Amino acid sequence: MFPFCAVATFSALAVLSVGQSITPLTASQIDYFTSYTYYASAAFCDPAEVLAWHCGVNCEANPNFHPVASGGDGDIVQYWYVGYDSILDTVVTAHQGTNVSNLLPILTDLDIVLVPLALDTERFPGLDSSIKVHDGFKDAQARASADVLAAVQAAMSTYESTSVTMVGHSLGAAISLIDSVYMPLHLPSGTTFKTIVYGLPRVGNQAFADYVDADLHLTHINNKEDPIPTLPPIFLGYVHPSGEVHIEDSGVWAACPGQDNASTECIVGDVPTIFQWNEADHDGPYNGITIQCSSS
What we know:
Blueprint: H1 4-17, E1 23-24, H2 27-32, H3 34-42, H4 47-51, H5 57-60, E2 65-71, E3 80-85, E4 90-95, H6 103-110, E5 114-116, E6 132-134, H7 135-159, E7 163-169, H8 171-182, E8 192-198, H9 206-215, E9 218-223, E10 244-247, E11 253-256, H10 267-270
Parallel strand pairs: 4-7, 7-8, 8-9, 9-10
Antiparallel strand pairs: 1-11, 2-3, 3-4, 5-6, 10-11
């Protein structure tokens, strides 16, 4: 069963995300994300190590995880994995973020054309054609989508789970957010979903952000002056969905209501130009956790 305290914490965060004022998270609300942060970090590890659940501190932090499948080459296809957490009682899917040692993911990040998801009628049946996303992110998600979906279906069947949680960091966050639109179109009604991502770039247009707000349960966590969540820029038609949590320089985690909240307590107001960028903030730390694969 999903622990009562975790349910209460997630419900409280949902209330904060639609509130009228910026609200600091409590220590228990911040700690709620720890398991998911380690899951996002584990996606940077070699798929064979993840499938054995032997990937150092990221795996050790979630000892009740049962891996089902993993894949990707870290180049053409970002690493990914799927499994089941018996304490959280949810299937977890995770995608690797942008790896600066590989050129192709970086080029993907720079491919900023907005395209309708509905053009892919097999993967996104019935989706309105006004809902558009970053072309490179769409292609990155598509490369592993069938394998990830099959693994999720297998995990749900094996562990009799009706809950799916999607996590990721950077490019992996963008892929996971598109997964969050894709998965509900192909899994049984009654399945519950939530998405918790870190260093999320803008993924789609206004219609996409509105769809996410109306149909998904998203929390996207930004660290200090990380530039990635400010890209692609708003003037190109990109909009962040609601659900932002911004880690301020003081260490306060601020729940920022609305889309692209312009307050200086939130990422848009805190990082208005390139002069405020600090690329070192992209990998964290997020409550003491740096997003990376560590073997010790």
